[in-house]
Amino acid sequence: MSSFALPSDLDDAFADSLLTDLAEVEKRLNDAVATHNAMAQWTAKHLMVAGGKRIRPLLVLLAAHLGEGTNDKVLDAAVLVELTHLASLYHDDVMDGATTRRGTRAAHQVWGNNVAILTGDFLFARASALSAKLGPEAVLLHANTFERLCLGQLNETVGPAENADAFQHYISVLENKTGSLIAAAGILGAQLGNAAADTVGALGRYGEAVGVAFQLADDVIDLRSNPETSGKTPGTDLREGVPTMPTLLLRQRHADGDDAPGTTAVLHAIESDLESDDALQHAVKLLAADPATDRTQELADEYGDEAIDIISDLPESQARSALLEFTTQLVRRSA
After folding, report:
1. Residues of 91-130 as b/e, b for ≥16 C-beta within 10 angstroms?
2. pLDDT tens-place string over residues 194-219
3. Higher per-residue confidence, 38 vs 149
4. Which residues partner with 104 through β-bridges?
5. CA dist., res. 109 & res. 86, Å (int)
6. 35 CB burial (10 A radius; 0-12, 13-18, 19+)
7. Between helices 261-270 and 245-255, what is the axis angle to 10°?
8. What is the pTM of this model?
9. Cα 331 to Cα 216: distance, rounded to the nearest angstrom
10. By the 8 A CB rule, do 231 and 102 touch?
11. Is 225 in a helix, a strand, or coil?
């Protein structure tokens, strides 16, 4: 079930319908990963039963209510986007070397890299089968989204080209890795809920913006949250040398001539050998307190405000009110 708190001023009937639909989505998720394969029946459910925010399915449902509301295809679309998200997590954790996910051991830590990767592929296959039930437009959108997920991960792995803007490169990675699937959730919900064409377009733009805001907030959470509540290993990106907005801002500040002791100390800490947990915790502590992390939260807020501006132009409704609150919670969350 989604961890998103519904606004208290929502109509009871509307709130109840959302909760009922989310429960149905959860049931369909379980059905979608069911298999008689002796191994996959355990591996495919590993991250699903560990929990999760279910923000993408909830966005599908809210987007549908900007039109005629939910129906059978909308519910399947909610399952489709969550399956795709879950599949990407199996792959991401292998590439990042993450030890935990959602408060439990990462799948590759339990079964090894090969099994984790193949489980992600299995979930992508099940998601593709669902898209086929929704029609050719959904199949094409899902395929294009899958392509962007891959390109985002590839570009993050390879890094920016020589003389390229490192910040723009990073934002493009976030747009592909996170924004694309959140945008797809909004588009599918609006389309299958028979919303107006301009509403469908607005939900696509909204998803791109809120996806970047979500991931920038995640950069902050990775440094400042409690791992027991966030379910993530703090500093995983630091240890793997994966660029994040705080590290990019810190390095740019130093390149611009800031050689103050504080800046130099943080830079030295994050560029040192972070294999030991003590060294990693020290680097995380210093970077978390650095102004670069405050600026990252400000950027997350700015992208969140952009997303809010997009949906603020939509006709007033219970669904729009819920989306506005949904956006604020995504950007200002602590886990």
Report:
1. bbbbebebebbbeebbbbbebebebbbebbebbbebbbeb
2. 999 999 999 999 999 999 999 999 99
3. 149
4. 101
5. 16
6. middle
7. 130
8. 0.92
9. 8
10. yes
11. coil
